[in-house]
Amino acid sequence: MTTTVCTGVSAAAFPSFTSYVRARGPVLLRTARSLTSNACDAEDLLQTALTKTYLAWERIEDHNALDGYVRRALVNTRTSQWRKRKIDEFVCEELPEPEMVPAPDPAERQVLRDALWRAVLRLPDRQRAMVVLRYYEDLSEAQTAEVLGVSVGTVKSAVSRALGKLREDPELGHAA
Fold first, then answer.
1. Tens of pLDDT along 6-47?
2. How confident is the model at residue 124 (pLDDT cuts 50, 70, 90)?
C-alpha cells in the first residue's frame, strides 16, 4: 500500500508515521473496507483518514493508541461523506418506469428450441458439425477448424451456408 500525503511537508519528516502506515496499513484498509461498498472507496477513505492523522501527528500524545485514532478518523470521515451525499430529484410528468414486457412463455421457448434443433439435424453432416461446435459448444472458428481438421476459411464458409439454410427453414419461418 503506497501512501502519499499532500501537505507540503515531506513524509520523511515523520519516519515513525511511514513505519506505522507500512505496518498497520493492511489492517486499517480492512477496517475501511468494512465501512464502504467497494475497494476503491475504502482506499480513498483510508487515504483521507491517514492524511488527517499525518496532519495531527505531532499533537498525538499516545502513539500506542494510533489504531484507535485512525479508526475514529475513518468513521468520522465516512459519516461526513454520508451526510454530504447529494441526491438529485427531477420532476417529470411521466415516471421513467420501464415498460412491462411479459416474460416469454416457457412452453413457447421450448417449442422454438425443439424446432431449431430439428432444423440443425436437417443440415448436412459437415455443416451440422460446424454449427454445433461453433454455437452449441462455443468454440472459436480456429478451434472448430482444428477439431475438424479443416481451414478457418472452410469453417467460415460452411457455417455461413448453414446459417442461410436455417434462416430459410420453413419450420423456423415464424421465429425470424
1. 444 455 567 888 999 999 999 999 989 988 888 898 999 999
2. very high
Euclidean distance between CA atoms 16 and 33, whole angstroms: 24
Burial degree of 74 (CB within 10 A; 0-12, 13-18, 19+): buried
The terminus-to-terminus CA distance of the chain in angstroms comes to 55
Record the cell numbers describing residue 174, joined without a space: 415464424
- Backbone φ and ψ of 100, nearest 5°: -70, 115
pTM of the prediction?
0.43
SS3 116: helix
